[in-house]
Amino acid sequence: MNNLELWEEYGEYIAPxxxxxxxxxxxxxxxxxxxxxGNRFLDMxxxxxxxxxxxxxxxxxxxxxxxxxNIVNAGVNFLCEEVLYAAKAVxxxxxxxxxxxxxxxxxxxxxxxxxxxxxxxxxxxxxxISFDVGYHGLSLGTEGYSMGRAYVKxxxxxxxxxxxxxxxxxxxADKVDWWSSVEQMEDILKAHHEEIAAAIFEPxxxxxxxxxxxxxxxxxxxxxxxRYRVYLAFDECQTGFGRTGTWFYYQQLGRCVPDFLICAxxxxxxxxxxxxxxxxxxxxxxxFVMNHVSSHQNDPFGAGLVRFGIQQIExxxxxxxxxxxxxxxxxxxxxxxxxxxxxxxxxxxxxIGGFDLDFGGDGKAEVLEKSSQFSEAGLxxxxxxxxxxxxxxxxLLPPYNISxxxxxxxxxxxxxxxxxxxxxxxx
Length: 427
Ligand SMILES: Cc1ncc(COP(=O)(O)O)c(C=O)c1O
Prior knowledge:
Blueprint: H1 3-10, E1 25-29, E2 32-35, E3 40-43, H2 46-49, H3 58-68, H4 81-93, E4 100-104, H5 107-121, E5 127-131, E6 159-162, H6 179-192, E7 196-201, H7 215-227, E8 231-235, E9 260-263, E10 274-278, H8 300-316, H9 318-339, E11 343-349, E12 352-357, H10 364-380, E13 383-384, E14 386-388, E15 393-396, H11 404-420
Parallel strand pairs: 3-13, 5-6, 5-7, 7-8, 8-9
Antiparallel strand pairs: 1-2, 2-3, 4-10, 9-10, 11-12, 12-15, 14-15
Helix pairs in contact: 3-8, 4-8, 6-7, 9-11
Bound molecules: pyridoxal-5'-phosphate.
């Protein structure tokens, strides 16, 4: 069946929780996916940033097959050996944390769990500070700290936000006023520290516009959290697991080591796995004052995939490769920006980055409409592109095994798309 036939035969059975594309995907291999009409697309967001080793990776399939032939769920009060091996493997890739790992399913679930513990451990303080444009999921708790707050009714009590510093290049952060965000945080803490349990941030703000607050900013935030005895949680659902060229992005941020580290998406190689890492230096075992129960916690299948992913990233040398590929993409994007002034602020840190497109105007609806036209034109040219920041920023988080030839093909097709869509831009 082709795209249209599939929609006609089955479309009515899918809940319309999103405005889905007309393309129905049937196959995926490496960095490419194919739709039912046989069109092939280069997936520059790597399966919603989850397929870090590519689609249909035979090695992942083989390991998943082996894992699926063993115990599927031991119940919450038993541990499987596979989970212990995975916890040690996670511990070893974040040595600064002396970490203890807890495996869950999704990013939102892991953030919920982290905040649930932070609140209990802080003696029942309930407040949380986050970025105004941060994103931590859309469960009933996390949506209160995400840019989707607009839909939260009623608003969560004691939810505070500070402005995310608008830094596109941490090397040039001295030109940006990030200090006022530190002051905002200090003002909130001065007035409410008795109520605040945790501050949760993405160290690179992705959905909210691909912003890279510098190391100096994070060191100030760490100092404030220490001074006011507030837990610092880093949501590395996108930046973790090697994407930025280190295992976790906090490892590029000097003295800023978080108390909780959350990772999801890529860590499961495409399967739903997330992890909360508790900092063993700042959260002693005696701080755990309650149990956590969730059907898929510490599943041996998911944990086994995490360990396999770590081995693969090490064996294939993806940390340094991601860094190099990031520089390569950035060079190409800078060249495109010189040719097309509507492409603004190209930026990459390893394999997380992108650029803004200047659609002009302030009208949200108008920008969203134009960005969706641009995405459609990208599809026409064989590119799967994803926007964040309400349609202003194209996000690039390709699989780690994307080849240089594929990157060149992305750049050529992006250029073609920019050329044909000039009418959408204000310059
Ligand atoms: C930084 C960050 N945190 C949390 C989440 C939520 O993860 P999930 O969609 O798996 O619940 C996302 C999802 O995009 C994310 O990007």
